[in-house]
């Protein structure tokens, strides 16, 4: 990601991603071009409420799990 600020590595669903420092969960979702439907986010095994995604800043080496739920039968 090209940005004037520093960069850091985080792990998203088991893959290392290089992102800008101080990225929020909401910014990460936009950076990854993920369409938000029924979704849950966990950072270091802790669920983060959707209301907090735009203010929750990620740190170096955080482990992020993005879980999308799909209907079916």
TrEMBL record:
CDD domains: Ubl_ThiS. InterPro entries: Beta-grasp_dom_sf (IPR012675), Mopterin_synth/thiamin_S_b (IPR016155), Thi_S (IPR010035), ThiS/MoaD-like (IPR003749). Gene3D superfamilies: 3.10.20.30. This is Putative thiamine biosynthesis protein ThiS. It comes from Sulfurovum sp. enrichment culture clone C5.
